[in-house]
Amino acid sequence: MDMEDDEAMLSVDDDVARFPESELSVNTVGRRSFWPQGRREKGLLVTVLVLTLTLLCCVVTLVVQNQLPVPEKPKKPGVCMTRECVHITNRVLNSLDLSADPCNDFYSYACGGWIDMNPLPNGQASSNPMDILERGNLQRLKGVLETNGTKESQSEQKSQRFYQSCMDMDAIEKAGAQPLVDVIEKLGGWNISGRWNRSINLQNVLQDVTKNFTLGCLFELSIDDNPVDSQRVSLQLAQPNLVLPSRDYYFNNTEENIKIQEAYLEYMQDLSLLLGGEENATRHAMRDVLEFEKQLAVISTPNSAMRVMNISDLQNLSPFIDWLAYLKVVFYPFMMEPSDTIVVFSENYFQKITALCKRTPLEVLNNYVVWRVVQKLIPSLGNQFETVRNKLKDVIFGTEKGGFVPRWQKCVLETDRVIGMGLGALYVKRYFDVHQTIQVEKMIESTRLAFNKNLDTLSWMDNVTRSAALEKSNSMRDKVGYSHPLLDDAAKLDSIYIKLNLVNGSYFQNVLSSYLFDVEGWRDLLRYGRSTDTWRVTPPTVNAYYTPTENSMVFPAGILQEPFYDKAAPMFINYGSIGTVIGHELTHAFDDKGSRYNYNGNLKEWWEAGTRKQFEEKAGCMEQQYGAYEEQGRHVNGHRTLGENIADNGGLHVAFQAYEQWVETNGKEQSLPAMNLTNQQLFFIAFAQTWCSVQTPQALEESFVTDNHSPPRLRIKGALSNSAEFARHFGCKLGSAMNPEKKCQIW
């Protein structure tokens, strides 16, 4: 999960893999026509071999049946010749590169064939098995939304209405830029595209953009669980997310970053011209806006500390606006008092923003705030604006020019954002087998038992802390598939979206309504708190996550598919894939951030001091290990990726222990056909092949400064090279790349 700093400790752990923003994820082109000839021949060879073995098995079976009146009970273990096993064999072998040495470079060994067979589609910056599953789910959701017929609930009807308005390109193009121009005028104007009402101050414009668009512009406002009292929610304030993916792009003036800054300025100018700006004046004004945004990047801090205070304390800390007045306007009619609690991340940023605003002309401040509104609403306009956005994307991520997100895909993603649970209800009714959750829940429990058993082997942990860790593990809640109390009750589901007002024929208006609905959701959270029935992701999501304030892990329906999970697959495949994901999420409760929350989700130290010190020493080993890894001439940030690296390593270890215990209880499984590999070796291959990836050099560079996960190659190398079980089963010599003498192990 993504935990870059203490700010992220309160947000959903962005789980086991990172996704690009939906508008920038383009999936259009098939793969097969791009296969190199050698890999195609290998695929045909594997298929022929598997089919031959299948035929031979059938012939032998017939002969035996004819010779013996009473067939002998099949001996186990043997070779699994079911359709599913043949399919998995094909998939695994085609993904391998047998010319690579698994003890030298396991990523190339496990993923070399997959990389050859999966070139990047036009317009896409990266691709991995999660992306492929997501594309499949989007196609399914498209089918659901475009199916005629009566929808059973109001939420389902609203899903279809929103999608249809998004797909109505004739109406969108006919409206042109005018809907956004009208929004700008209501905010008091923008001197870049027209006249600006100078009587409107920063306080007023910030109140308007937050209550109408959920934008803080100079900060991020949200409502989430109170870290010191997780049964309650609280206001939370953080430094802002900027337009470019990372603050590094603004002031780390490498040749590539300067190129991106220039492309960003051109993007700002081109959009302003489309909105009616004059070329020379626009260029000058947007340069000032960019310089101001650079200053915001400079005062932002990558590792921000958290402080719980009241609104009066915040006013003393950062008096550039009247915070109580601002919050009263945004959350009206909910009452706000100076003594109300607010969680502030990056206290240092909020000290510095006051001075920055004082020395910045009001005209520049207003231009920046309106620019952020423009940037947020541009995706709701027509193709001219989309073309400008794609030009910037091409520079940042190295995608091919002209690579557009298919309109239907964008509209499915937006519908999922706005009415995700309503759309999710349609998805699970048609595509999700609720019975498969039974085996997944059994795997979760067996992985938890393996983790608990492993606690007894940790010599560095004292008994008091060990007992508390056991309590936290056993108290952890797991949610699989979807929220049954919510999606199985149409009336309850409809009640969630009753305040979402949608119209026919105006996509832009529906997007504006979605932001008003989001703000109303904030107010409801303050009034009623968070319902345990509500999940933080929608059912079709291809991911998993752990939330420290809830001490819960979630595995949505979307990820419970091949290659992560297949109810007909051998357990060594399932434990190597979804099992390691389960272990990953469980271990997040005990990583560098999650370990600071106790069993009921409160930020409270529950470790003995000596054990905490030893944990930090072991975590330091892992931070140094990954920090020494290099790809494309750049080192991994061992500190930022520490939580994910701990989860990868711990998850792999406990999943393997859970599988070994499963074998001990159920007996050895049959092997896969046409493979000279043990079941234990296939467990590790299944783990690695879930993280195979292709990406542009620019996308890899971007991940180094934004992603809390290590790059896929190093993710696999790090976890497996720390695994004694891996080295034993692959026979890797001590001192080889995948079996170093020094290993970093925590869980």
From TrEMBL:
UniProt domain Peptidase M13 C-terminal: residue ranges: 543-746
Gene Ontology cellular component annotations, sorted alphabetically: plasma membrane
Short name of any one Pfam family annotated for the protein: Peptidase_M13
Highest taxon, organism lineage: Eukaryota
Cofactor(s) essential for the protein: Zn(2+)
An individual GO BP term: protein processing
SUPFAM superfamilies, sorted: Metalloproteases ('zincins'), catalytic domain
Transmembrane segments: 43-64
Keywords of this entry: Hydrolase, Membrane, Metal-binding, Metalloprotease, Protease, Transmembrane, Transmembrane helix, Zinc
GO molecular function, one term: metal ion binding
Domain Peptidase M13 N-terminal: 102-482
InterPro entries per the UniProt record, alphabetical: MetalloPept_cat_dom_sf (IPR024079), Peptidase_M13 (IPR000718), Peptidase_M13_C (IPR018497), Peptidase_M13_dom_2 (IPR042089), Peptidase_M13_N (IPR008753)
Family: Belongs to the peptidase M13 family.
Name of the featured protein: Endothelin-converting enzyme 2-like
